[in-house]
Every structure is written in structure tokens, then in C-alpha cells.
């Protein structure tokens, strides 16, 4: 059975030596000193390894089952959920007034990576509740906040997001779920929603569904969509639970993975709903929390890659097979461990350099969220809004590929379920799809985010890279291995942006045909920037003296691999982008 | 449920207009005229679509089950197997004297792609039988051939290959299965083999296991390995079945995919075995058929990509979501079909250009097998031996990636099992692993095949490319779109080979660290060559007049996409290769 050890040391390095969070002028960050975050991360890591990891295989094997409309989670989930609640983990970064601990989002993200890595299907129950609670926090009335948030912050009640319908996912303007206004100000919600994660289960007293629907008589299409709170059980004025609402689970889906999470068809039959936010402004309300939700999914991609990598690494050290071509490394044994072989190294280094670089990228993004929300900083908000599709699309695509690499290290043992490596790839696969399929992320990036606010956020990103290069140009230890490759990659990104500006004007298909490559190009530049920053931090530590030189030397070596082997991919992405839309769009649909 | 339509038209184009098989001087090819191959392919395509495709989901859902040592295949498999036998398909390319139809391997490969695409798990039962029969054909005594081949060619008896043991897969020198010589010339085989596809099932009267083991007292390691025939039921002198042999299935594995194929732990307990080929030359006997087996696996990668692509294409044409950014294409409907969107196009074109290019590569490789075996041509044998790891590794890696792309077109519907897209990726995943994991293919390519016979086969490949470029240099319609990109990619491949020669001498890790990239670089150049040849054939057809210009124009457009968008990947592979082994090998194992 796979194991998982939380990468606390690496997270601490990123938080304190790369991002230097406790020195950042973000409200609440002054409390984020190394000892404090270390204590929180250690505690979370223990729960991840000891409570959640053992349930990961159980969840995959048993799955959820539905009997008479009741959905049962896998053995042990209920107890573990109670333990999570007891520890106050679901409310870690929620406001104190609703029972949360008011920690920054960046710390919640680090903890979230651990929980997701240990058990993605399980962690989604609280992740979705977090998302729904955030929406109520921003858009809810005082009464709504007081009614729902204390219970949701504690996860006594869980939450869901209901967007997709059988005939529409990305194009939500096509939705048919309708909301009929009632005399008392509530609405009767009728329609069918699909792919509702945690839509029904046995771990909470109540489930608060956030449902997109169209108010009868409102505008056509996406402009007529509103957001509603639809509790499974109506809530009495005193906060106690009342009658069962007209919402039920029609079936749970058989899926490729995340079997421990119930993916439900939800039927709304004149269910009582309460408008959340303004009429016909449902999409805006959803989008408020979209950045966070998408960053959370990017985190899942990274998390599965980390968990899979850890196991592949152990296997590569244990499994004896063949000999080192330069001479035996285990001469007394029947063979050398897999890790001596260059191609196994290539795979392990790809995984390691991705997870460490991706983690820095993710946590940097999380500090931008904190700066935007806690610091009310509009430029941070703009920058993270630009980076969000990259975090989501790049980290989940690459994260998935890394789970495939990890599985491959096991040979045939990676394909049978016994070793658990198949589950990592099957679970990781969903993150490329939900919260906006990655093609939609690429479209969002190139079609909207690049030009947002006159393109000033992408300029801010380039300035960041330029500043870093400039500030360190005389650092000989960084130059050839880190600065030069970063500069080259960043130039590729700029050239791609330039191409879109020039050719996208003539024909938008020239830009959109390259959107996916651009998202990946951008992701590589971000990881290149992270690696350059981490290398700088490592060099600093080595120069100023450290009791753990191996850690920093390893960091540098891992970074050199990324810069030499992975970052050059930007050149091919650029060539593809610059080939334009002609070859992509040439065929008539009928001629495919 | 997914559907499948055999790509007969495309196969005919490749066989007759690109490879011009009936004009090739290979024994038996003169009969391969267009009408003849068309009739065979049409018939096979019907069986694939009508008999095998409907059982694909059944096999995945039901899987195999074992009760009291008996393994039951999924509902319908037995009847379908009987139908395959009745049609004589298992013996299509086997010798007439054993009941086969003596068709060339290239035709068997085309038919095999259809069957695999329709139902990989099912088709493996006869595929493994084919492999085992081939080994007996080459290495068996007359008596062995007469005893086993007629029944195996007809698939009344099926066959298996037993290599892997719990502690050894790639490194077969570690194996423990032992063979004790008996007075009558037979051996008693004792040991455990794992991952034995089709090891036990209910579709054949007898199962002929080919088992690698070590004769007691023989040399240590790989030099002491011999190959044995171990029938499930001993065969009496009159050909009737005798006593049950000491071989049994210990369990069947739970796997990520190919659930319809029984993957067995096989226990040999003093089972009676007969030496196949020479003592201690078991590996050589296995390797004889390795090229064919590996090409067969490459074919599976392509086949799953084709099946997945066909369904993704249909979905992209049907599913209405969003609007074409250049103006509605379905103005009377609520939205445009997915296929209008550039990023969906990018994905579909990647799939289409891979499957068509890969098919040409595969069938070209199959003609080399025919030339080598039927024509006893040593250079063809050398060339296909060089290309085999590329066919296996590149087509299965890329084939898998294509199934992931196809699944992505479906959004959330791709993740639930209902639509069948998950099965394509889960089934395709195994092809990257078995018959030598793709890392081992890369090692074989760079460590052995490149320098085989003084490197003359890779030189022959480069000559082939050069000849094509030279012969067509004045063809203006080919030059910019096809010849120039092919030339550039081929130069990258040569530069990589040069790097290996120079730097691999100094340190073999410099070559082996780039082996995987080299395999993919080589694969792209092969597909580039195929596309250039197909483009030439298409242009010829358009110039000489055709009643179906759309087919050829589509072929050209698809090729242009590959050359412009996919082939440039060779540059990044080269950069990675030239970065050498330093960053790959830098870390001590303990510091990972």
C-alpha cells in the first residue's frame, strides 16, 4: 500500500526562505513565523499520513454506494471526517467570527496539499464546503452568513456547487434549471444538475447546495443566471433542522477515479432556494470564488504528483533490477536498485523538479490571493487572476503526467491495483477536467486574462522576471544555470504574446489555436522563475552557513535539471504558437 | 457506448498508394492487390465493429473471475472467440501447412489494428497465441510443431508467454523458476510466474505455456535460461488430451484496465515441460519473436488512439457548447458544436495526424518484417530491428497521450465510465509497460540497436530520408510544408546520434540519460517521413485525377499540421539530449 510523508521541510523552505512570508506586508502574515507554520504543518502532516493515507485505498476500492436515496461513504471516512472537524482543520483559513482560525490562505493551501496528496477523494468533501462557504461569505446577507457559515466552517454541514447540467457544462448560458419567485421572497428551484461532487453523503447533518438557475421571466442565456442556496434540510429560525427540501440524489456516477467522493446527479423538484447575491448576477458570484477554486484544483494536480513521486522513489531505491552501466552499486546483491539507471533518474528528476517547482508556484500564487483579499491590493488581484488558469491548467496537466511517470517506474506492478500507483493517475485525471477543463483555462488565459486591464498584469509579470534577472545579473553562481535559461524562456513567452497581439487581431483563431501551448509555455516560465528564486535562496543559505548543506545542494541540482531539461520546452511551444491557426483550422468538420 | 469504424480506406491508401505493396518484391506480395486486401479488410472491419466492439464495455465492466481455479471470461467472449476461429482470423498470417492462410504479416497487422481497436483485452487471447506459435514455428522440433501448431493456429488451443516473476521483470537473469531434467528427456518445471496474460481462461481446450526457467546445474544468470513448452493438459501421442499438468492459476490480478483479459499468477509445481530450442538459449528463442511482439504492442497503442479519436470526433461534432469566435456556425441552434473551437481542433488534429502517421509507420515496419522473413533480407531485418523499439515506445506513449486528449474532449463525461472514454486510456496504459517497459525500449534503441552491425542500420535509415528528400527536391508543392521540416527534424536526429557517439564514449550516462528523448525524436522523424511520403502520394493522386479529391486534400492538410505543430518537438528533444547526463545523475540516491 502506498505511503505518504508530508513535505514539511520543503514547504518551510518555500514559505520562509523563498517567499519570506513573515516579512511580507500582508495582514496576518506577521504571525507566520517559521516555528508557528512548522507546528501547524507538522500537525497536518501527521493527520495526512496517519489518518487520511490509510483510507485512500479503501475509498478507491469500496467507493460510495447509494441505497434508497442515501449515499454511504467508504468505511472509515465518517470517523476521519469527525477527526478533521475536531482538529478544526476545515476552518483553518476561515474568519474567526464564524468559528474559523483566520489563518492566511497560503497556510491553508500548504495544508490542503498534504490532505489532497493523502486522500483527494476524502479532502474534496471539505474543499467543496470551503468553496461554498466562501461564496456565502462574500455574497450572502448577514442572515445567510449567520445561518450557514458557523455550521459550514466547522463542516457540521457540508456544501456543494451545482453548475453542470446534462447538456451544458462550459456553456452555462444553456442551462434549464429554473427558479420561480415565491411570495415570501424564496424561490422554487426545479431542474437537474450532474457531476455534483459530494452532492449526497452520510458525513454531515445537512448539505448546503449552491445552485445556478434561471429566474423565470429573466434575460436569456448567461445573463439570466442567478445563484441560490438550497439546503438539503430547511433550516428553522432557531437554527435547528426542519423539513427535507425537494432535492434528492438521482444516482451516483461510476468514474475513472476519486471513487471515495460521491459524484451525484441531483434532482431539484420545486426545492426551496434562497437567492445568493443579486438576481441574474449568478455568474459573477460564482467567479468571485473561481480563482480560489481553480488554484485549489491546481493544488490537487501537484498533490497527486507528490504522492506518486514519493512512492516511485521508494520503489526505485528498493527494487533490484539490472546493473549500473558504469559499475555495480550493490555488488553484494543480485542486482542494483532501479535508481542507478539513467532513464529512471530522468523520470525521478522530472517528478522531483516539477513537484518542488510547482509547490513554490502554488504557494506564491496563494500569497497573491492573500495580498489581494487581506491586503485589498488590486494589482495582486490582477496578477493572480492572470496566473490562475496557468496554475490550474499547467499544474494539473503536468501533475497528471508525473503520476504516469511514477506509475511507469513500477513496470507491471504499476498497472495492477495492488500497489496503488494506478489510483494516483486515475484520481489525478479529474483535475484536468473539473472547475473548467484545461482547454477552457487556456481560453480564459489568452482570450481574457492577457488583455485584462489593458494587459497590465502580464506586463507586471514580465517586470517581475526582469527585476529578478537584473537584480542578480552579477551573481555568477546563478547566471549560466538559472538566469540565462530563464531569460530565454521569458523571451519565448514575450514573443508568443507579441504574436497573439499581431496575428490575433487579424484572425482570433491565430491566437486561440495557440492558447494551450501558451498556457504551458507560461507555466514553464513560472516554474523557471521559481527555480531561479529557490536557487538563489539555496545559494544564500550555503554562503551564510547552514547545518544542512545537502538540502541546499540538492535544491540546486534539482533546479539545474529543470532549467536544462524541462524549461527548453518553451521553444517548441513558441514554434507551435507561431505556426498560427491555418493548419489547425484547415479542415471542414465533415472532412475530419 | 463507444463505436468503432475500421479505417479501411486509410489502410488501403497506405498499403497501395504509399507502400505500393503489390509491386514490392516480397514473396506473396504479388497477390496483395487492392481488391484483395480491400475484401479482407472489409470483412475484418465488420467483425471488429459488429462482434468485438459491443463486447469491449462488457469486458471492462465484468472483468474475468476465478472460481475454484477456473477462470471465466466475460459474457459473450466465448461466442465471439468461436466466431473468430470460424472465420480463420487467428491463422491469417500463419503457414498453410498448419492450417493458416499464409498471408503476409503486413495484412495481419492491419487486421490486428482493427481487432485491437475494437477490443484490446479480447484480441490479446489470440495475439499471445500467435506469439507462442511463432516461437514454436521457429524453434520447435518437427514433432513439437506437428503436435502444437495446428491447434494453436486455429486457436483451439491458446498460448502464453511466461517471463516475469515476482522479483524480476526486465532483469530476467534473476529468475528462480527451475527445470529438472527427467530420464525421458522432459523437465519438471517448478516456480511462480506473474502477469501472465491469458494464463487461464475458459475459451480453449488447452493452453500451451511457454515458460522461461533455469535448468538445474546450468550457468548462473541470464546465460542459464531456457525456454520450455508446458501444456495445461499433457498431449497424448494421438493428439488427444491427457492428464492435467502441474500448472495452475493462483489468482487473477485487479488491474487498471484490459479487464477482459485474465492476468494470472501461474504456479508451476513439477509441471512437465519440454525444451523449446537449445538448452540455455531461452533468451535467444524469446528474442526471435520479440520484434513481432513489440510491433504488435506498438499497434495496440495506435489502435486505442484511433478508437478514442473516432469517438471524440463524433462527440465534438454533436455536442453543442459555446459559439465560434468568428461567428456562429449553427445559428439556428442554441450553440455551435465543439468542433468549431480552435483548441478542440488542435486536439483533434493532433489525434488524427498521429493515428494516420502512426499507421503508415506501423505498416511500413510490417513490410520490413515480411521482407526480412519472407524475403530473407538481412538489411530489412536490421532496419526493422532498429525501428522496433521506436514503434513500440513511441506509438504506445503517444497513443496513450492521444486517448487522454480524446477523453478530454468529453469534459466531465470523459471521466465517468458511462461514455467509455476512460476505458480507452486505462486499456492503452498497459502498452507502455508490457513487452519491455518503454524505458527499456529506449535503452535497447540507444544501448544496442544504434550501434548494431557497426551502426549500418541507422545509416540506412538516414539514407532513406536523404534519398526521399533528394528525389523530391524539385517538387515545389512538397518543399516548404513537408521536405524542409523533415530535413530539419532529421538533422536533429543526426545531431543526437553524433552527441551519443562523442559523449557516450566518455561516459555512457551521457547517452543513456537521453535515451528516452532519442526514442521520441526518432519516432517524430519517422512520422515526419511517413507524412512526407503520404503527402507525395496525395499530390500524385490529385495531379493524375481522382474522384475523391477531398480525401487527398484532407490528407495534405493533416500532414501539414503534423509537420508544423508536432514535428518541431525534435528540437526540444535534441536540447535535452545535448544537456547530457550531469543534471540527470547529479544526486546521490539518498538525497532525492
UniProtKB/TrEMBL annotation, chains A, B:
Keyword annotations: FAD, Flavoprotein, Oxidoreductase
EC annotation from Swiss-Prot or TrEMBL: 1.3.99.41
One Pfam family hit: Acyl-CoA_dh_C
Signal peptide region: none
The Acyl-CoA dehydrogenase/oxidase N-terminal domain, residue ranges: 78-154
Segments forming domain Acyl-CoA oxidase/dehydrogenase middle: 161-269
Keyword Flavoprotein: yes
Cofactor(s) the protein requires to work: FAD
GO molecular function: flavin adenine dinucleotide binding; oxidoreductase activity, acting on the CH-CH group of donors
Domain Acetyl-CoA dehydrogenase-like C-terminal: residue ranges: 461-587
The reaction(s) this protein catalyses: 3-(methylsulfanyl)propanoyl-CoA + oxidized [electron-transfer flavoprotein] + H(+) = 3-(methylsulfanyl)acryloyl-CoA + reduced [electron-transfer flavoprotein]
Membrane spanning residue stretches: none
Superkingdom of source: Bacteria
Domain Acyl-CoA dehydrogenase/oxidase C-terminal residue range list: 281-444
Free-text function comment from the UniProt entry: Involved in the assimilation of dimethylsulphoniopropionate (DMSP), an important compound in the fixation of carbon in marine phytoplankton, by mediating the conversion of 3-(methylthio)propanoyl-CoA (MMPA-CoA) to 3-(methylthio)acryloyl-CoA (MTA-CoA).
Family to which this protein belongs: Belongs to the acyl-CoA dehydrogenase family.
Protein name: 3-methylmercaptopropionyl-CoA dehydrogenase
Provenance organism: Rhodophyticola porphyridii
Amino acid at each position: 500500500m502506498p505511503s505518504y510523508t508530508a513535505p514539511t521541510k520543503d514547504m518551510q523552505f518555500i514559505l520562509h526562505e523563498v517567499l519570506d512570508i513573515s516579512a511580507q506586508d500582508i495582514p496576518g502574515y506577521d504571525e507566520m513565523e517559521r516555528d508557528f507554520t512548522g507546528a501547524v504543518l507538522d500537525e497536518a502532516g501527521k493527520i495526512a499520513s496517519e489518518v487520511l493515507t490509510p483510507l485512500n485505498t479503501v475509498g478507491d476500492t469500496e467507493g460510495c454506494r447509494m441505497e434508497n436515496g442515501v449515499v454511504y461513504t467508504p468505511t472509515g471516512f465518517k470517523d476521519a471526517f469527525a477527526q478533521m472537524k475536531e482538529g478544526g482543520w476545515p476552518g483553518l483559513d476561515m474568519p474567526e467570527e464564524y468559528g474559523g482560525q483566520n489563518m492566511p490562505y497560503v497556510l491553508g493551501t500548504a495544508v490542503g496539499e498534504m490532505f489532497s496528496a493523502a486522500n483527494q477523494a476524502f479532502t474534496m468533501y471539505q474543499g467543496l464546503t470551503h468553496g461554498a462557504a466562501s461564496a456565502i461569505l462574500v455574497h450572502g446577507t448577514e442572515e445567510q452568513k449567520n445561518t450557514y457559515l458557523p455550521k459550514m466552517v466547522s463542516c457540521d454541514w457540508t456544501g456543494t456547487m451545482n453548475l453542470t447540467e446534462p447538456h451544458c457544462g462550459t456553456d452555462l448560458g444553456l442551462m434549464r434549471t429554473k427558479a420561480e419567485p415565491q411570495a415570501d421572497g424564496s424561490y422554487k428551484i426545479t431542474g437537474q444538475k450532474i457531476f455534483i461532487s459530494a452532492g449526497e453523503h452520510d458525513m454531515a447533518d445537512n448539505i448546503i447546495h449552491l445552485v445556478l438557475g434561471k429566474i423565470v421571466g429573466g434575460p436569456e442565456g448567461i445573463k439570466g443566471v442567478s445563484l441560490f442556496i438550497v439546503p438539503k434540510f430547511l433550516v428553522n429560525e432557531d437554527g435547528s433542522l426542519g423539513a427535507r427540501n425537494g432535492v434528492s440524489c438521482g444516482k451516483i456516477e461510476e468514474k475513472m477515479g476519486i471513487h471515495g467522493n460521491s459524484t451525484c446527479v441531483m434532482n431539484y423538484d420545486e426545492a426551496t432556494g434562497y437567492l445568493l447575491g443579486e438576481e441574474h448576477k449568478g455568474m459573477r458570484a460564482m467567479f468571485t470564488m473561481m480563482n480560489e477554486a481553480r488554484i485549489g484544483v491546481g493544488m490537487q494536480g501537484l498533490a497527486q504528483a507528490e504522492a506518486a513521486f514519493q512512492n516511485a522513489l521508494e520503489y526505485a531505491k528498493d527494487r533490484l533490477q539490472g546493473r549500473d552501466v558504469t559499475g555495480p552499486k550493490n555488488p553484494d546483491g543480485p542486482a542494483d536498485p532501479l535508481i542507478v539507471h539513467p532513464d529512471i533518474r530522468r523520470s525521478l528528476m522530472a517528478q522531483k523538479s516539477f513537484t518542488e517547482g510547482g509547490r513554490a508556484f502554488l504557494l506564491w500564487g496563494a500569497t497573491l490571493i492573500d495580498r489581494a483579499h487581506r491586503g485589498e491590493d488590486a494589482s495582486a488581484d490582477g496578477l493572480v487572476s492572470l496566473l490562475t488558469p496557468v496554475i490550474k491548467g499547467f499544474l494539473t496537466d503536468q501533475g497528471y503526467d508525473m503520476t504516469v511517470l511514477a506509475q511507469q517506474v513500477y513496470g507491471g506492478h504499476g498497472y495492477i491495483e495492488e500497489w496503488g500507483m494506478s489510483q494516483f493517475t486515475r484520481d489525478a485525471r479529474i483535475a484536468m477536467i473539473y472547475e473548467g477543463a484545461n482547454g477552457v483555462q487556456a481560453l480564459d488565459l489568452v482570450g481574457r486574462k492577457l488583455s485584462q486591464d489593458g494587459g497590465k498584469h502580464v506586463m507586471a509579470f514580465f517586470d517581475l522576471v526582469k527585476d529578478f534577472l537584473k537584480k542578480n545579473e552579477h551573481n555568477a553562481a546563478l547566471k549560466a544555470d538559472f538566469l540565462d535559461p530563464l531569460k530565454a524562456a521569458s523571451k519565448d513567452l514575450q514573443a508568443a504574446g507579441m504574436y497573439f497581439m499581431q496575428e490575433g487581431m487579424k484572425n482570433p483563431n491565430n491566437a486561440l489555436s495557440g492558447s494551450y501551448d501558451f498556457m504551458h509555455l507560461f507555466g514553464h516560465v513560472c516554474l523557471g522563475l521559481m527555480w531561479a528564486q529557490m536557487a538563489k535562496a539555496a545559494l544564500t543559505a550555503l554562503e551564510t552557513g547552514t547545518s544542512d548543506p545537502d538540502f541546499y545542494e540538492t535544491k540546486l541540482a534539482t533546479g539545474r535539471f529543470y532549467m536544462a531539461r524541462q524549461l527548453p520546452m518553451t521553444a517548441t511551444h513558441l514554434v507551435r504558437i507561431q505556426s498560427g491557426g491555418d493548419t489547425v483550422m484547415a479542415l471542414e468538420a465533415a472532412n475530419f
